[in-house]
């Protein structure tokens, strides 16, 4: 019960506030999204990495774990699509919502509340690896029918400010130089605003989801997205020798509901966005129960 009240409930209350704003207040969230993407999130990433004690070995372990999870979920999605006899668009949408978890604007606040600053820092590394996978593998899956090459996604990696904040933080940690106090305080103020802004943005995004494809496929995908990764994560972390806090964070981040970015990719490339939208909404709603139970077990 303490996990529900102290970790999950704050996330859903702030996200719910964003949902109400999106539903009942005329708003254009694009500006807020850009502020989060280009300013607040990079500041949060920089501060977390700069102040943390993440080793190169831990970062490599997380990266390997994320890639294995994504590839395994992709294989599961392909097998499920064949069994359900999905068309190409439904197959692409199903792969996107199963592969990519909302480890950013949902996962990072949960990591912070549940595991503290160090757990949050591990979550940042998880997020960055997932972003790289979305920018390459995700775009390849979404655009495959158009004949686009996956390598085109590599150019998009350089557009993510998160990567530069991540690298700069590691450079500054390895350097004998320190960030000036005044500059660091400015970064810290921006970082403090990132988590509530991300949750509000998540709520606004969910408020715009229209459930036009509610059915067996969406329920099945949502169930797999929430129930398979905890067991998959435990198996992979045991195989990779990941233990302790790093194991708990890895499993929890992998078990988050479907990412809003999956819906964005499905919409952009017209790969059954109705199915993707329904799975994002259902998995996020049901995660109130699944993530609470998972964090209780991991705790």
Termini Cα gap: 12 Å
Residue share in helix: over 70%
Give the C-alpha Rg: 18 Å
Strand content: under 5%
Instruction: Calculate the mean pLDDT score and round it.
Output: 85
Question: What is the count of DSSP helices, taking H or I runs of 4+ residues?
Answer: 12
| N to C succession of SSEs | HHHHHHHHHHHH
Q: What spatial form do the alpha-carbon principal axes imply?
A: globular
The low-confidence runs, each spanning 5 or more residues with pLDDT under 50, are none
Count all strands and give the number. 0
Helix/strand/pairing category:
mainly alpha
Largest sheet descriptor: none
Question: Can you walk me through this structure?
Answer:
With 299 residues, the protein is mostly helical. The mean pLDDT is 85. Helices cover 80% and strands 0% of the residues. The two termini are 12 Å apart. It is built from 12 helices and no strands. The longest helix is centred in the middle third of the chain and has 37 residues, at 107-143. It has helices spanning 2-24, 30-51, 56-84, 88-99, 107-143, 154-157, 161-174, 181-207, 216-240, 244-254, 260-268, 273-298.
């Amino acid at each position: 019960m303490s996990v529900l009240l102290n970790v999950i409930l704050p996330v859903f209350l702030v996200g719910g506030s964003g949902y109400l704003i999106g539903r009942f207040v005329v708003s254009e969230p694009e500006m807020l999204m850009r502020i989060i993407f280009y300013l607040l999130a990079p500041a949060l990433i920089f501060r977390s990495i700069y102040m943390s004690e993440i080793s190169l070995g831990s970062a490599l372990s997380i990266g390997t774990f994320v890639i294995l999870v994504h590839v395994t979920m992709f294989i599961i999605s392909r097998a499920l699509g064949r069994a359900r006899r999905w068309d190409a668009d439904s197959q692409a949408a199903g792969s996107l919502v199963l592969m990519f978890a909302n480890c950013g604007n949902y996962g990072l606040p949960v990591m912070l509340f549940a595991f503290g600053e160090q757990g949050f820092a591990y979550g940042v590394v998880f997020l960055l690896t997932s972003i790289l996978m979305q920018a390459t593998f995700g775009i390849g899956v979404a655009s495959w029918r158009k004949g686009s090459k996956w390598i085109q996604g590599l150019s998009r990696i350089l557009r993510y400010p998160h990567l530069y904040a991540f690298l700069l933080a590691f450079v500054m940690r390895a350097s004998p130089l320190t960030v000036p106090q005044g500059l660091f305080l400015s970064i810290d103020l921006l970082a403090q605003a990132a988590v509530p802004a991300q949750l509000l943005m998540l709520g606004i995004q969910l408020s715009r989801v229209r459930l036009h494809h509610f059915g067996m496929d969406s329920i099945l995908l949502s169930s797999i997205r929430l129930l398979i990764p905890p067991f998959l994560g435990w198996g992979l972390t045991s195989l990779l020798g990941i233990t302790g806090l790093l194991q708990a964070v890895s499993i929890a981040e992998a078990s988050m509901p479907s990412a809003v970015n999956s819906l964005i990719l499905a919409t952009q490339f017209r790969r059954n966005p109705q199915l993707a939208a329904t799975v994002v909404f259902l998995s996020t709603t049901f995660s109130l129960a699944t993530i609470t139970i998972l964090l209780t077990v991991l705790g």
